[in-house]
Design brief:
- The chain has 309 residues and is an all-alpha fold.
- The chain has a single domain, classed as Orthogonal Bundle (MetI-like fold), CATH 1.10.3720.10.
- Helix content is 72%, strand content 0%.
- Helix 11 packs parallel to helix 12.
- It is elongated and about 75 Å long.
């Protein structure tokens, strides 16, 4: 009985970088963030965008959908002909640019995070199954993944959205379902290595079920790679949403989307540059913040980066 308890204790002891981070605690991670200029900058940018989206009603005094044709294409406040109440100017329909940019942050974050949750859930489960069980399950899952890789992602999304129709829920689902392959391939590779370790064999020896082994012992050890991929995919998803909204297949008006704002302002670039410039800057700043933060997470969570410390 004592021998079995010893094996159980050994089998349940997490290994890998995730456990190292747990032992190190939040304090160590915080110190690493402060030492990383790009990571800190990324965290600040992401925090600003999140706070902007969360407190949108408090940061604006105009409804982003209100139309004022008499004050259309008013310039920002530092240019001649501007209006003090529209400090970033107005668009081609007289709508306040600042309010639309602030509310557009909500759409980008909801779509970006929502689609990553969908694709990450699908990809992680399929990767765990393919790597752990192998054989015909692995063959079927990886051949389906290969088929998805053979089809241009943007083309597949355009076809589905053209058939189903635009909308936030549809957009999140379509982007999520078409971007699970990267998660599956990475998780599968990690599982193939981890399942041969002693703590997994010990868990099998004491009679742990496959479900418990997968989600109690293996998944915590692939979580670091999963977090890194998810962070980087948020940036990709934000760009995808903006691209599809630019083409008219993303977010439907009157909901505000940075990609839709770019589409509205593209014909006024020569005369009213701010209509397209400000939403473009919002997309750029948000994506850069996510990428910087994602790079820092990769450095922290990747065990190969430990040698640099």
């Amino acid at each position: 009985m004592a021998e079995i308890n010893e094996i159980q204790a050994f089998s349940s002891a997490p290994v890998g970088q995730v456990e190292e981070l747990k032992r190190a605690g939040i304090g160590r991670i915080w110190k690493q963030l402060l030492r990383s200029k790009t990571g800190l900058l990324g965290a600040i940018l992401v925090l600003i965008v999140c706070c902007t989206a969360l407190f949108s009603p408090l940061l604006t005094s105009h409804n982003p959908a209100d139309i004022d044709p008499l004050n259309r294409l008013k310039p920002p406040i530092w240019l001649d002909g501007s209006m003090p109440e529209h400090w970033l100017g107005t668009d081609n329909l007289g709508r306040d640019m600042w309010s639309r940019i602030v509310y557009g942050a909500r759409i980008s974050l909801v779509v970006g995070i929502g689609a990553v949750l969908v694709s990450g859930s699908i990809g992680a489960v399929l990767g765990l199954l393919a790597g752990f069980y192998g054989r015909w399950i692995d063959a079927i899952i990886m051949r389906v993944a290969d088929a998805f890789l053979a089809i241009p992602t943007i083309l597949l999304m355009l076809v589905v959205l053209a058939v189903v129709g635009p909308g936030m829920t549809t957009l999140i689902f379509v982007i999520g379902v078409t971007n699970w392959v990267s998660y599956t391939r990475v998780v599968r590779g990690e599982v193939l290595s981890i399942k041969e370790r002693d703590f997994v064999k010990a868990a099998k020896a004491v009679g742990s079920t496959n479900r418990r082994i997968l989600f109690k012992h293996i998944f915590p050890n692939v979580l670091s790679s999963f977090i890194v991929i998810s962070g980087m995919n948020v940036a990709t998803t934000i760009i995808m949403e903006a691209s599809l909204s630019f083409l008219g297949l993303g977010i439907k008006p009157p909901a505000v989307s940075w990609g839709g704002m770019l589409s509205d302002g593209r014909q006024y670039i020569a005369t009213s540059w701010w209509v397209a410039t400000f939403p473009g800057l919002a997309i750029t700043i948000t994506v850069l913040g996510v990428i910087f933060l994602g790079d820092w997470l990769r450095d922290v969570l990747d065990p190969h980066m430990k040698a640099k410390e």
